[in-house]
Amino acid sequence: MAADAPVPRPGFRGYRRPDGRIGTRNHVLVVPTVICSSVVAERIAAAIPSGAALPHLAGCGQLGPDMRVTHETLAAYCGHANVGAVLVVALGCEQVVAQMLAETARRHGKPAEVVAIQAEGGTVRATEKGTRLARDLDAALAAQERVWCDASELVLSLKCGGSDYTSGLASNPTLGRVTDRLVELGGTAVLGEIAEIMGAEHLLASRASRQSTATELIQIITRVETEARALGLDIRGTQPSPGNIRGGLTTIEEKSLGATHKGGERAPLEDVVGYAAPITRKGLTVMDTPGLDVESVTGMVGGGAQVVVFTTGLGTPTGNPIAPVIKVTGNARTARQMADNIDLDVSGIMDDSETLDAAAARLFDEVLAVASGRPTSAERLGHREFAIHRRNPTI
Amino acid sequence: MKFVLVISERDNVATALQALEAGRQLQLGGGAINVREAVPSGHKIALRAIHAGEPVIKYGSPIGLATAEIPAGAHVHTHNLASTRGRGDLGPAEPAPQPRLAEPVDERNGR
Asked: How many domains would you assign to chain A?
């Protein structure tokens, strides 16, 4: 290459949507409005190649804030860049409004259809009609092609689970370097799991680009801590989990300091957002999610993340219906024992056979390859876990 | 392969990268430490004496308070270290203390 040749910017091949957003996958999303239509939705999605169902436990019997979160999370998936078309499967008497979900998809320029089980006359007719509609949507998507996209178009979800001592020493710092590089390129990363920032908030708050963002972060952590304390219970045993403790992690502060490495060391904290709320600022965002893995990933993908990097010490299978989840471990034993579930082994960091920078370069390349369509272990194994966070009782 | 890893020079514990037996002597930058008791791989070992009530420091930040006298070379885990955060068992909830920011936050990008 000539000395003055421009260095090509890193990028990937994605789907450019009518609303300008970039998808890394091209699913027909089959959305049940309510738990009662979840089985029909799953059967329809299973019948078409690009089908992705969102089976869930909510959609009715919920009070104000929970109902709003359920609706907004489902709507966020309908508008998501990894979704090319939407089929809403309603029952007919539930709280979540099918037409509003379809309208959300259409506002983002996606074709959307609705089928209602009561109106169609039962499971068999609704499944038949829904499958025909979904097949037509799938055929239209098959004609769409990937185009070259700059790495700055990526919104990366940062997640850890089944952590052990290697997480804070190897896999999380590796991911942190990827976060710093992506943000320097103009991209976006999102960190969730507020309870697992407890004890490390001073490090993130000091990187906030605005005082108000630092204040919001501290307020949200204070709220979660106050809620935990108001239960009168000892957070130990839950945070860290029994497996974390066997792995050598003693306190939530220790777990958090290791976990927060995922957010890098330099990337400015630009925003703090609510559960599954849109991530609109480039740079690092913190989302208010619980520590439970599936609820957390569900929320961050709802916010717009098109790829998830999930670090683990002990190993975990979690995927997502519409976003690829890349599993990274720094534990050599887990890399061997749970090879099915692991995409990237960075355990060389632990025995000094690989540097953090070299591991981060491999992970960055993996993120771009997966964004371009390479299937992850979770996708190959059919892991499509989805759970909407809820705070209040069902009435 | 190293026996232990010290992450920050402020730390008063190190992480065992393999199981440590009692009696082993570890050579570290700051001197030698005698392993007082077995420390499983991935667990922590005290680099110096830590008094009950003193913070235990890892990653350069406090990870909780010592609940007993911890001699140098001892295993540090749930039996002698406890979190100070989210502890509803310690009494009724009060507003949590506001953590001090590590450094003043500037107002760049004042969007």
From this structure: 2
